[in-house]
Amino acid sequence: MEGLLRERSIAVVLGTRPEMIKMMPLLKLLGDRGRMIHTGQHFDDDLSGQFLRELGLGAPSLHLEVGGRRRGSQIGDATLLLEEHFNADPPEVVVVHGDTNAALAGALAANASGIPLIHVESGLRSFDRAMPEEHNRIVVDHLADLCLAPTETNRANLAAEGIGGDRVILTGNTVVDAVLDLLPPPPEQHAVLAQHGLEPGRYVLSTLHRPENVDDPEVLGMILSELGRCDLPVLLPLHPRTRASIEDNGLSGLLAKVKVLAPIGYIEFLSLAASSALLVSDSGGVQEEASVLKRPVLVVRNSTERPEILGTFAQLVPPGPLVGAWIAQLLGQGPQLLNRLQNLPSPYGDGTASLRSFAAITTLLSRPTSSRRAAS
Q1: pLDDT digits (tens, 9 = 90+) for 241-269
Q2: Active-site residues: which are they?
Q3: How far is CA 166 from its chain centroid?
């Protein structure tokens, strides 16, 4: 157990806002044993530094600053830098999360350095190889010594690929822990709404950032046009990638009918999401958060790796002319839909995923060093 108690013996590699949010509860449980390494995949302060401060995570132990590069260069450079770091100061285990370039780089570096790898939020599958994230999550799952699966669906996906037994642990999703921990009480939520001149249940909150939606000007223009047709006010916090695409492609005129916000903090986002009539998003995390906040979400994508909430909290719609029709249909159900969702449990757990993940990590570290690596 000596290694278990050694300071910073657990390296947590992350690089994006969702990873910061979802790993926050686990990092706090790890305390001085956790060594947070930030690849810099999200390097804009609104998406990185602001979130680290708001979540109370402090500065990373190491910042690789590989943001702003092409995907291949970002993964390759981060992998090389992580290998150098792990070889110079090896942790006892490396923990990565989800399907980001940071997760893949952390996994590759851990394996190259002979360090056990734990994958949090394992087993998600969209079965859409057009998504770079699908490549990342599949590779990381197969490299991991321990896969922490949020749902039974995720565990079944892993089993279908030959990953099972003691190598997989069902934990729930740590996003539930984060939402329950950070959602402000109703008076503070109402204060946020008042700042924006909004009434509960009388607005739509939308987020767009995925390359397939924002990098193609025709697709992005169509989505913005559909949002502009909404009968309720639409709040649109603009991701830096989305803002740049709008400006570069001359689409700014399509923002006239929506209320544009700068990127907002997570607590403010939760306050706005919790009282919205509808969420419209291409974010995976927002799909999960909607199930905790009991809000409907229109998922503007061709596929999703979170099928557990389709037909309940979520409706999947491809980017295009059907977006506006689905917004109108969901809003037309009004309080009846919101009341029905209030009684549905989130399929992503009860808020104890971080505790289960922490227990899994400590159990792995309690094994003899020679038995920590998964059988090949």
Answers
A1: 899 999 999 999 999 999 999 989 999 99
A2: 209
A3: 26
